[in-house]
Specification:
The protein is of the alpha/beta class. It has twelve helices and 15 strands.
Length: about 375
């Protein structure tokens, strides 16, 4: 692992550095404790200096919250278009992360020895070993941002609890770094779309495996679920085992399609054509619509005669101005496909009604659709 260095106790210290987003370790690090004032911490963080916390863990959380409040106080600039609002919102998110990630915590073999610190070892172990690279033991000294550590702990609690999926009458458990199926409206579309008794179905970009599981619950006997991320593959396999669907679902590593052909091919690609700035964001952002275009352009090769493809998409990109209104139908036509049916549903998530959200005007018009496609 990459090392982070800092000066403490009259000598240079070193530890392994962890950053989920792949950020390099900060070059300037100072020691912070319970006497550190929020204004001074905020100033240092804005200048690029990280603060390695040596005081009470709960006070470290309060300092992080205080820095976050100061970041959020900066007013947004007036914008004229929704596209400008989107780019400003993304820039503010990135800037916020850059500053708030400057509060650091050291773990020793996965244990935080600060006063009033929770037991984080299991959560950290799960986060660091579910990327396909199992660790025999956690590093003797590991430094990461407090914000990332809290994300690991929160994700582990959600993983244990799971997300209730009505179509399965069961729960799906998302690993750290794997997008959780909290937006149930697109799953309702999968559960309700006309199903023409396919013998073999594929779920492209399976993530947690939830779509593959719904297809099996609807009677599909054989489903191949693909993904190119080791964490997602491990997560999908775990959920398949939990649901006792291992005889029906085969999880495979692939960039898009497995070998062969299928009667039904389903894909819920990232909905927004923009750059991802962290691994988890690859489930939301698809630069230049690469996955979407790759899926559409590969269907004629992989669909059986009379086979059908289901594409689940939101029109949020069109409402924001990231994609031209006619672009998607143009790509479908250029791929030699035709739309035989389209089913729509309005979003139910909290942001759709949150008028304080910078993208509220676009979210209020959002529609999630399932396109049923066939070869032209």
């Amino acid at each position: 692992m990459i090392q982070i260095n800092w000066y403490e106790k009259n000598k240079t210290q070193a530890a392994d550095w962890q950053s989920e987003a792949g950020n390099p370790p900060p070059k300037a690090v100072v020691i912070a404790d319970d006497t550190t004032k929020a204004d001074e911490a905020y100033r240092l963080a804005c200048e690029g200096t990280a603060l390695l916390y040596r005081g009470d863990f709960q006070n470290a959380k309060q300092l992080l919250q205080a820095i976050t409040r100061r970041v959020d106080r900066k007013p947004a600039k007036p914008v004229e278009t929704m596209l400008e609002a989107f780019h400003q919102h993304r820039a503010r998110q990135i800037g916020r992360a850059n500053i708030t990630n400057k509060v650091l915590i050291e773990l020793k073999y996965g244990v935080c020895d600060l006063p009033r610190a929770p037991d984080v070892k299991v959560a950290v172990q799960a986060a660091l070993t579910m990327d396909g690279h199992s660790l025999d033991k956690l590093p003797a000294r590991l430094v990461l941002s407090l914000r990332e550590l809290l994300g690991m702990v929160g994700a582990h609690e959600w993983r244990k609890k799971g997300v209730a999926i009505q179509a399965l009458r069961s729960t799906i458990h998302a690993y750290y770094g794997v997008y959780s199926p909290v937006r149930g409206e697109y799953l309702d579309l999968i559960d309700q779309a006309p199903l023409n008794q396919p013998q073999v179905a594929w779920d492209i970009g399976t993530g947690t495996g939830v779509i593959a599981a719904i297809l099996v619950a609807r009677g599909v006997k054989q489903v191949i679920a693909t993904d190119n991320q080791p964490r997602a593959l491990a997560c999908a396999n775990d959920n398949v085992q939990r649901l006792n669907m291992q005889t029906n679902i085969q999880v495979q590593q692939a960039d898009l399609f497995p070998a062969g052909k299928a009667d039904l091919i389903v894909c819920n690609p990232p909905w927004l054509p923009a750059k991802a700035n962290a691994p988890i964001e690859h489930a939301i952002y698809d630069p230049d619509s690469q996955m979407l275009k790759g899926f559409l352009n590969g269907l004629k090769t992989h669909l059986n005669e009379q086979g059908e493809a289901w594409l689940i998409m939101s029109n949020l990109a069109e409402e924001i101005g990231l994609r031209a209104p006619e672009a998607l139908l143009g790509w479908i036509d250029a791929a030699g496909l035709q739309v035989i049916d389209k089913q729509d549903v309005a979003p139910k998530h909290a942001k759709a009604t949150d008028q304080s959200d910078p993208l509220y005007a676009a979210r209020a018009k959002e529609v999630t659709s399932l396109y049923r496609l066939k070869c032209a």
